[in-house]
Design goal:
The chain is an alpha+beta fold. The protein has one domain (5-143): 3-Layer(aba) Sandwich (Chemotaxis protein chec), CATH 3.40.1550.20. The chain is 36% helix and 23% strand. The chain has helices spanning 20-26, 46-59, 65-77, 93-98, 119-126, 136-140; strands spanning 5-9, 16-17, 31-36, 40-45, 79-80, 88-89, 104-109, 114-118. The radius of gyration is 15 Å and the shape is globular.
Length: 148
């Protein structure tokens, strides 16, 4: 379980490190990053990723227009994080752009996943400010059965 929040800074090469308390709960089977609602990224374990993909497979068919489009966006945004021998990882440029990630980030524990936010966007979100982000309308229409 992931709870709490941790503020960190990317190094000069843009590398980040998952906070130690979160890292121990992630295991060794792989960590995946993907777009998430509100313009942040979700970091999930391989186990959670597999459960989510199973839900998509049972709901999405070739004829399921909106559901299929949402599945395409979410699944195509997933990438496995590769950590170096010091536990650092670099996000793909598309993911950084989507979440507006700069040098200052916050990792937020949310039960079975971790959200990765740009600090300024996180603070705006906590103040209840409205802002636009890529695929906002898609996330607003995601079937509640697909939440994880």
């Amino acid at each position: 379980m992931f709870i709490g929040k941790y503020y960190l800074h990317a190094d000069d090469k843009g590398r980040l490190r998952i906070p130690l308390k979160f890292r121990y709960n992630m295991g060794t089977a792989g960590i995946y990053a993907m777009y998430s609602a509100d313009g942040c990224l979700s970091l999930i374990t391989a186990e959670t990723a597999n459960k989510m993909l199973e839900k998509f497979e049972s709901m999405v068919t070739v004829a399921a227009g909106e559901s299929l489009n949402n599945a395409r966006i979410l699944i195509s945004s997933m990438c496995e994080l590769s950590e170096d021998n010091q536990g650092r990882f670099t996000l793909m440029p598309e993911a950084k752009k989507y979440a507006n990630i700069s040098k200052d980030v916050v990792f937020v524990g949310l039960g079975n996943k971790i959200e990765l936010w740009d600090v300024e966007r996180w603070e705006a979100h906590c103040r209840g400010e409205k802002y636009d982000y890529l695929y906002k309308s898609n996330f607003e229409s995601v079937n509640p059965e697909l939440t994880f």
